[in-house]
Amino acid sequence: MNFRNVLGFRRTLKRAWVGARTRLAGERFYCAALSGLSDYNISINCDMTVSCNCQDYDARSVIGDLSRDTLEAIFAGPRATWFRRRLAAGRFPIDTCLGCSELRRAPRGEAERHVAEFAIPRRGIMVENTVLCNLSCGSCVRKVLMQTRSQKTLELEDIRKISELIQRRGIEILYYFKFGEPFLSPRIDEELRILRGANPGLKIVISTNGGPLDSDRKRDAALMADHIFFSIDGPDTATLRKYQAGGSFEAAYGNMKDLARVRASRRSLLPVIEWKYVLFNWNDRRRMIRRAIELAREAGADAISFWPTRRPRRGISWRYYLWPHFKKLGAANWKGREVRLKDS
Q1: Interval 167-187: pLDDT, tens
Q2: Helix (H, G, I), strand (E, B) or coil at 165
Q3: How far is the C-alpha of 245 from the C-alpha of 264, rounded, in Å?
Q4: How far apart are CA 82 and CA 49, in angstroms?
Q5: What contacts 24+ positions apart, CB below 8 Å, involve 111-115?
Q6: What pTM, to 2 d.p., does this model score?
Q7: Element (H, E) at 223
Q8: What secondary structure letter does DSSP report for 259?
Q9: Once rounded to an integer, what is the mean pLDDT over residues 66-95?
């Protein structure tokens, strides 16, 4: 039995065990995302399919297609309904549900009510403008991912349709990223202009690896956002490339610094610029953390946050969980630890 089969067998056992234990307790499950209670996981992919989970690289959580149906019809449709019914029966429709942050346990009656009683997302939604990426990260299954998208980048007409949906539903937050690198879209400035023009009060959050944000046109696009994360996993290129293969620290860091410079020249406070530093056991030394904080401050970033990861397992940062140093670093929040730079 190879390693992949072992992992599959372990997932099957865990799924059966968690489901059986929940049913024995008289409880069942429901999905906060499919109940309209989430502000994050419902995502519109770059081919206009809609997924209920942000980790659906294999498209198993696709519940409909916005090029054929409205979001309301998709939520009431057969695929979403089947997901809700399976959860209400105490079973998992797909493996991803087991570790999903949207999974909820509830008494059987309450879980069954969520099959028919649900809302359409209003708090937030995710949009994947492109699935293209300039990096090859350690946990990315890009070969599978690329086969699941019928188109690789949203068309401007798709963006207009999404913008109208956001306006009609009164959606408050747009997470403009998913599996691809948003700034690899050749029309990202036009995309954001359409979205911002129809939704001036919308909070737009973008996550980038920083490499392609390298022109005045793209910086103008970035300045239309409210918050932008630069995902740079190390204080130098050698460290960064242990996970973000093909990346360049100098390029990503330089582009972050340039964006902060342009923002300052326009006397703007937005977007909030945050360095997202994913922690692995090869980039979590105290000297590396100190250096990253120093560099973030020098670049003019507003914050740097340290995100512990469990993927890949070989890269887990045990120092994050065991060292007192991390417990004193900045402030704890849902990300891990965050160091505010503008207030310090």
Answers
A1: 999 999 999 999 999 999 999
A2: helix
A3: 31
A4: 17
A5: 111/27, 111/28, 111/29, 111/30, 111/87, 112/28, 112/88, 114/30, 114/31, 114/34, 114/35, 114/84, 114/87, 114/88, 115/81, 115/84, 115/85, 115/88
A6: 0.93
A7: none
A8: H
A9: 96
